[in-house]
Amino acid sequence: MTTGTVPAVITLKKGMNKLKVAIIGAGAMGSLYGYYLANAGYSVELVDIWQQHVDEINRNGLTIIDGNKHHNIFIPAIADPRLLKEMKDLIIVFVKSYQTAEAIESCLHLVNEQTRILTLQNGVGNVEILQQYIPSEQIMGGTTSHGANVKQPGQIIHAGKGKTVMGRIDGQNRTRERWLAEKFAKAGIEVEINDNIQTLLWDKLMVNVGINALTALLNIENGKLLEMEETQMLMKYLVAEAGNVSSQAKIQLTCQNPLEHVKSIAEATGDNKSSMLQDLIKGRRTEVDYINGAIIKKGKEVGVSTPYNKVMVALIKAKEKQVKREPF
Prior knowledge:
The protein has 328 residues and is an alpha/beta fold. It has two domains: 3-195, Rossmann fold, CATH 3.40.50.720; 199-322, N-(1-d-carboxylethyl)-l-norvaline Dehydrogenase, domain 2 (Orthogonal Bundle), CATH 1.10.1040. 41% of the residues lie in helices and 18% in strands. Helix 6 crosses helix 9 (275-281). The longest helix has 22 residues, at 197-218.
C-alpha cells in the first residue's frame, strides 16, 4: 500500500483548469462538502430528495454551524439529478447505500470519460454497485473523519473535522486523481491519496460494525458505549467476528488491534450520534445491511459464523418497523 500527501504543483492537461461537482445526497455530510467546495469558488450543485431542505437552501442559502460561527452560502440545489445539464468532473455520492443504484442511474448523463465518481458512503458494497454502471478506472472510494448533523432544513452542524482519504478502486491513481485531491486541499479539506481503498473501506467498516447498531438500539452517543461493561463486551464480539471474516477473506486491515481502534474512534467521537441512530430517530431505513449485514454476507462466502452480527441486523430491522417513516 502506498499513500501520499497532495503534491504542491501538478501539471494539468488542457481543460483541467476548472472543477465542476455534483453532490448526490446533500444531507449533513454532502452539504458540508458542498459548502467547502463551493466556498473555494468551484461550480457545485447539490442534489437531495428532501424537498424541504432543497427549498430552504435555494431560498435562504446553506448554513454551516461550526461552534459559535455560522457560515452561509448560496449553492444551487435540486431534488432530481436528471434535471442537471452540465457534464461533471466529479460526482460525490453520499446517498444511503440502498439508494446507490437509483442515484447513479439518474446521473449517467453527467458522466464522460474524464468524470470521477467518488463514494464516501458508509458500509461496503457501494463500489460493486457503481461498477455495474461506471468503468472501474473512473470510480474512487474513500472515507472521511468529518462529522456533521442536520439541525433543520438548510442548516448543518459541523460536529468534527478530520482527514479525507480517497483513491481509485483499481489503485491506479494518476494526474486526474491528484488534481482532484489538490482541489480538495485548496478548499480546506485535508486529503490523502491512497492506493489500497479496499483496506481503507474495511477499516471503516470495522468501526461502523462496532459502534452503529449498538448506539442505534440503545439510543446513545458513541462515547456512552465505553461506559458500560455490557456494551464493551458486545462491541468486542461484533468486532471479533468482523476481524475473523476479514482474515479468512484475506482482506488486510491497517490497524493491528481492531477493537482498540474502534474504541479510540468511539472516544474521539464521544458526543456524536451515529448515522444509524440518526436514521432511526428520523424514521428512516438504516444501512445495517451494508454494515453488519456485509459481515454476514462475506462470512457466508468464506465459511465464518457471524451470530452476533446476525442478532444486530435482526434487532435493527425490528426497530425500523417500530418507527414512523419520514418521506426523505
